Amino acid sequence: MFMARKQRQALVGAAVVAAVAIAGCSSSKGTSSPKASDTGTASSAATQASSPASPSVDNTPVTLTIGLFGTFGFKEAGLYDEYMKLHPNVTIKEDDVEQSADYWTALQTKLAAGSGVDDIQGIEIGFVADVVANHADQFVDFNKALGADAANVKSSFYDWKWQMASTSDGKTLGLGTDAGPEAMCYRPDLFKAAGLPSDRDTLAQDWSTWDGFIKLGQQYMSSPTKPKGSTFLDNPASIFSAAVYQGKEAYDTPDGKPDYKNSDGVKTAWSFASQAAADGISAGLAQFGPDWNKAFANGAFAAISCPAWMLGYITGQAGDAYKGKWDVAPLPGGAANWGGSWLGVPTASKHQAAAVALAEWLTAPAQQVKMFTSQAHFPSSKTAAEDPAVASATSDYFNGAPIGKIFGDSASKLQMTPIGPFDTQIQQAITNALGTIVTNKVKPDAAWNAAVAAADQAIGG
Questions:
Q1: What are the φ/ψ torsions at residue 66 (nearest 5 degrees)?
Q2: Are residues 314 and 366 in the same domain?
Q3: In this predicted structure, what is the pLDDT of residue 461?
Q4: 276 neighbors 242 (Cβ within 8 angstroms)
Q5: pTM, 2 dp
């Protein structure tokens, strides 16, 4: 759902690059970690607190395989080694596939065959609705598997994150890893050149609504002093993919049935995004394409909606020369989420108890704090997000922006909208149509009709 939704293949690539530094202070490998203004974060509560009690398992030697896609960062953060040191009888092996689409296709085949699955399987946000709707009997229910500790584990997560991997009859099929709360990234230098306010607090007020954001975009485009060849926004999808999750519904009814034509979220998001496209405030660059990637450094656009992991993506594309030239402000219209995954344990695993214990430990608050400070993955655990190491984090690369607070505020305000297995296809059809308004000068009504035709074909409607 939330994900606003990924350009699905792209999010995996973005997840890989999310390990790129978001706080500046690049290392010799070009990576760095968020920094906290609180100098005492090393002794933070979440880091010091013991992990939730794991289900009892014996000390029999066991090898656990973890099936993942892209780069989750557990290995890179040293968590596997730490767990194996704590549990000498456990050996962890990662079974990684680069592309999420390839991973999901292979996993579906294995689930259908009832064999070949790993002990733990990563579940990406684009697939979680399918798992909940069609594979609930093939994954362990953590509410039962965690026993008496289930309530404590549940309370550590954001409610919306827990709910997204839960069935209507109370089964929870995955424990959240990261999340993608959204903000707005922008170039203060380009804003200043166009005569617009550039400090994040003023912008937060001026674009508290999407109407205000579009108004600023119109002012930017009409400015005689704006940088030549620069547009305000990267793509109208930046607006749509965030605003669609700010309604009561996005693409589906509460029971997960596609109903995007009657969705308040889709209607509102289309209205704002198509206006931005028709008004010419967007560059119309295909997100995650080569021209879009280059634009982070060449000034082709001044603003882009960005989930937490996008900071690493921007840093990697723009490079050290642009440290301090980007900033972060709250998202117009309220909170939204783009990205995030879960860990599930297939019932076909021969080591269920040991796999549940490992999945619980990897997603516990203390480990999520480490994943943020080491790999720049924003927590799906509210307990971890409230830890000083996260909540007080700032980014040197993004002009000292209080990224922990901005993204934490977004995550805490998120409300779950219904999700379904075809959200990605529907969103892709709509964002593609929005692009034609910019690149082919298609009228918004005609573009909407094309979006409907493509979405209905994709979902068999």
A1: -120, 115
A2: no
A3: 66
A4: no
A5: 0.87
